[in-house]
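ok here's CENP-V/GFA domain-containing protein, seq below lol
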Amino acid sequence: MPTTLNGRCVCSKLQYSAKIDSPDDARTSLCHCSSCKRAFGANYGLTTKVPLEGFSYTKGTPKRFRQENGVIREFCDNCGAFLCEYGEQAADTFRYIMWGRLFQKQQIKE
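and the structure came out like this:
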């Protein structure tokens, strides 16, 4: 069943929508690389992978930061919260959205 996931930054200046064919299309994962640990300020990063074709910002325009390892993180220039990330290989196909910024967490398998 088609599903739309919505999320926002802390201050609501940025909002996004991710349309997926099924909740099974949104793969949630934990990443323990040093880059994610640093970005999330925790022992892992928790993201949900969604197809780029269904992802769009519905409010605002994010700032982008490219890390030395090629990972790009999109964030709010007002509150500093980052909403998604992607590597160079996934740039044209996927976005990894921050699980904690989603409104419909219960629709996604953890």
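fwiw The domain at 3-103 is CATH 2.170.150.70 (Metal Binding Protein, Guanine Nucleotide Exchange Factor; Chain A). kinda neat tbh
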